Amino acid sequence: MTENAGTSVLGFEPQIGTPSRWSGWRGSLLQGVGPILLGLLAGGVLLLIVGRNPLTFYGTIVNRGLLSPSGVQDSLTRMAPLLFMAAGLIVAFRANIWNIGGDGQFLMAAAVVSGFGPQITGAFPGGLGLAILCGMAAAAGGLWTIVPAMLRAYYGLNEIITSLMMTFVGVNLANLLIKGPFRSQATNVPQTDVIPKDDLLPVIPGTRIHVGILFALVAIAMVHYVMTRTSFGLRLNVLGANPRAAIHVGIDVRRLTIVAFMISGAFIGLAAGIEILGVWGYVRADWNPNFGLTLFALVFLARLNALATVPLVGFYAVISMGATPPPEKQACLTISC
C-alpha cells in the first residue's frame, strides 16, 4: 500500500501513527474550540452592527444555558442524542457515505420506541426493558438505511438523493404510526401512550440529567478508538479516500458500504431511543427536532474527529438551551406583559 493510501475522505488523515496522547488530545481540543471562538467573534461583530452589546447578549445565553443549575443540566441532557448522532455521522462520512437521512432514521426509531415502550417496560423488569428498547431503536435506525445502502453498494446510486427520499418517507410513516396503531386512547391529541416515569432512564444522583449522557460519551470514545486504532477504521478511511484503492487492497467495498451505513443509522436510532427514554416518554404526531442538519455542520467543523465533536456539541447545547426564554418570558411573546 502506498504511503498516502490511508488518507481519508475530504483530505482528513486518520491518526494511524503513534503520536503522544497529549498531542492527540491537544489537537482534538484545538479542532473543537477553534471554530467556537471564531463563531463567537463573527457573531459579536454582527451584534455590534445591529446595535446590541455582544457581552450582554452572550452573557445572558451563558447564564441560562451553562451557569444556572437548571441550565447546565438541560444542556447536558440535550447533548446526549446529539453525541450519538455525531458518532453515527462520523462513521458514514469517514467512508465517504453521505447519510443525509438522519431525521427519518431518528423519527422511525422514536416512533418504534414510544409505540412499544409501555408494553416492553411493563413486561420486562428494570434495565432489561430499557436495553430491549434501545436495541429496537438501533435496529429501526439501522434498517432504515438498507435501501440507500443497497442502492449505493450494488447500483452506484447517489446516496444523498436516496437517503433524503427515505427521510421524507420515514417522517411521514412515523406520523402515520403515531396517528394509527401507536395512538394513545387516553387523550384526543395524536400521540403515543406515555411510558411511566419510573420506567425511564435513571438520572445521575443529585441531578435531573439522565444516564444517557454517559452512554453517549462512551459511544464517542468508542468511535474515536475504532477510527484511529483498528483495522476496521482504517478500511473505512481507505474506502472514503479511494474506492478503487480499497478494491485493489482486497476490501469488500459493497459489504463495507452497507455495514457502515447501517452502523451510522443504528447510532442515530440510539439517539432517538435515548431522547425518548430519557426525556419525553412519548411522541406526539408531527414532532421533529430536526437535529440532522445541525449535526452536519458540527461534525465537519470537528474535521470528522469524534473527540472534537464533544466541545462543539456542548457549545450548541448551551446556545440552544440558553437562547430559549424561560416559561414566563415565552408567555410574553403571545400575551401583553
Contiguous helical run count = 14
Helical proportion, percent range? 55-70%
* Series of secondary-structure elements, N-terminal to C-terminal: HHHHHHHHHHHHHH
Shape: globular
Percent range for β-strand residues: under 5%
Q: Averaged pLDDT, please?
A: 86
Distance separating the two termini: 69 Å
Radius of gyration: 21 Å
Query: What structural category arises from helix and sheet content?
Result: mainly alpha
Strand element count: 0
Count up the domains: 1
In terms of per-residue confidence, which ranges show pLDDT below 50 for 5 or more consecutive residues? 1-17, 327-337
Q: Main β-sheet, in a few words?
A: none
Explain the overall architecture.
The chain has one domain (79-317). It starts with 20 loop residues before the first helix and ends in a 5-residue tail after the last helix. With 337 residues, the chain is mainly α. The model is unreliable at 1-17 and 327-337 (pLDDT under 50). It is built from 14 helices and no strands. It is 69% helix and 0% strand. The chain has helices at 21-49, 54-67, 69-94, 102-123, 126-143, 146-155, 159-179, 212-229, 231-241, 243-248, 253-280, 292-301, 309-322, 327-332.
Keywords:
337 residues; mainly alpha; 69% helix; disordered C terminus
What order do the helices and strands come in, and which of them pair?
Layout: H1 21-49, H2 54-67, H3 69-94, H4 102-123, H5 126-143, H6 146-155, H7 159-179, H8 212-229, H9 231-241, H10 243-248, H11 253-280, H12 292-301, H13 309-322, H14 327-332
Helix pairs in contact: 1-13, 2-3, 2-13, 3-8, 3-11, 3-12, 3-13, 4-5, 4-7, 4-11, 5-11, 6-7, 6-11, 8-9
